[in-house]
Specification:
By secondary structure, the protein is an alpha/beta fold. Helices cover about 45% and strands about 15% of the residues. The chain is elongated and about 75 Å long. The mean pLDDT is about 95.
Length: about 375
């Protein structure tokens, strides 16, 4: 998408909002403030998306912060303004006098958009809460009863998420004393050179059977080979169409991982292949797959996995983006069943783009394996 088109589209949509909302407020001071805010947002929204093309940190980070905050507010204003137009159209068709409704609905749209942006910001910036889920695995050996996998996903360390944010996540994960830590991709938005100091807290992760990582699509945008080396240096095991056998006494658990579903578009050696990840695995052992995207599930089911742990969707993050997830992914969030395979989809532990989460809270998932009742 070219810069002139991006800026032109942004300006056009912001002007449309200003024309429909500012006069209808019938509050001169509030209208002037809204007009100024929309004018700034029209330029800052595309500038925030392109900041790293023009500037280097920390200047690019500051511009990204401003642009993403504006984008979050603009998204809510646009959705609510469209809803307002439908209400006004319905009122006109019903023969209702539109003037008072136009005034109060414009004020409601503005107030609700500001409130949604504030609440969304608070939700996005707080440390993710722990979500505890029991996963029933038929035939689970008694020695593996209560085996706990703690998953973090889609943190997106980058312009607005730095070391302190990640450190709080690491501390909360370690406090759970898990058997395994799974980092299921989209950890970063930026190069190793830019972000290595901000990803450094991952070296503190502690789990009885280790910490494991699989690539997400954003690692491929950020220099995947450099990030694989850096994460291995920090002590994580990167699973690339391969598995590990974890043991509790005589019991075995197969923990496998695959590259992102789209990895082969960036490197032909990064074709996601759940079947290959099981090559040489002991028969009869429970099988868990780490994969970034839910749409790996059909291949995982065909390969004979019992559980797939994934992310990518952010649970939609905030409306209206939650409407578009099902167009690409079979599942949006939570635990699902596909034949024998169970699929757990994290809502993500950070956020991408606008620092905003509404009705899709971030999470650290504690998945406890239990046998059938």
């Amino acid at each position: 998408m070219s810069l002139p088109f991006l800026v032109g589209l942004s300006i056009a949509l912001h002007v449309l909002l200003a024309v429909r909302l500012v006069p209808a407020l019938e509050l001169p001071a509030a209208g002037a403030l809204l007009a100024l805010l929309l004018a700034a947002s029209a330029l800052l929204t595309p500038a925030g998306l392109l900041a790293r093309r023009w500037l280097k940190p920390p200047a690019s980070d500051r511009l990204t912060w401003a642009g993403m905050l504006c984008m979050g507010l603009f998204s809510s204003l646009l959705v609510l303004a469209l809803a307002r137009e439908l209400v006004l159209l319905g009122a006109w068709l019903a023969g209702v006098t539109p003037e008072p409704l136009a005034r109060w609905s414009a004020r409601a749209v503005t107030g609700l958009a500001l409130l949604a942006t504030l609440l969304g910001f608070v939700n996005a910036r707080r440390t993710a809460q722990v979500v505890r889920v029991k996963i029933r695995i038929p035939g689970l050996p008694p020695a593996l009863q209560g085996f706990r996998i703690v998953q973090v996903s889609d943190i997106h360390v980058g312009p607005t998420i730095k070391a302190a944010y990640l450190q709080a996540i690491v501390d909360r994960v370690n406090a759970l004393q898990p058997d395994v830590i799974a980092v299921t991709g989209d950890l970063v938005d930026g190069s190793v050179a830019e972000l290595s100091e901000h990803v450094a807290p991952l070296a503190q992760l502690r789990a009885r059977d280790g910490s494991y990582f699989v690539t997400g699509n954003h690692e491929y945008y950020s220099g995947v080979h450099g990030w694989i080396k850096e994460l291995e240096r920090l002590g994580l095991v990167v699973l690339h169409n391969q598995h590990m056998v974890l043991r509790r006494g005589d019991a075995q658990l197969v923990l496998a991982g695959v590259p992102d579903y789209t990895g082969h578009h960036f490197d032909s050696a990064h074709q996601s292949d759940p079947a290959a990840a099981l090559a040489g695995a002991p028969p009869g052992a429970p099988r868990v797959l780490l994969a970034h995207q839910p749409r790996t599930a059909s291949a995982a089911a065909a390969a004979g996995f019992d559980l797939q742990v994934c992310g990518h969707t952010h649970g939609g993050q905030f409306f209206p983006w939650s409407l578009f997830v099902p167009l690409q992914q079979p599942y949006t969030a939570g635990l699902h069943q596909l034949g024998r395979l169970q699929v757990y989809v994290s809502r993500g532990t950070g956020y991408w783009g606008p620092p905003k989460r509404l009705f899709a809270p971030s999470e650290i998932a504690e998945l406890t394996l239990v046998g059938s009742p």
